[in-house]
Amino acid sequence: MIDMERFLENKVCIITGAAQGIGKSIAERFASDGALVYACDRAEGAMDEWAEVCSEKYGTRVCPLYFDVTDAVAVKSAFMSVFKQEGRIDVLVNNAGVVFNKKIGMILRPETELMFRVNVIAVIEMVQLVSRLMARGHGGSIVNIASVTAVLGSPGQSAYSATKGAIMAFTKSAAKELASQGIRVNAVAPGIVKTERFSELYEESGEKIDNRIQRIALGRLGTPLDVANACAFLASDRSSYISGQILGVDGCASI
Question: What residues form the membrane-spanning segments (predicted)?
Answer without folding.
Answer: none
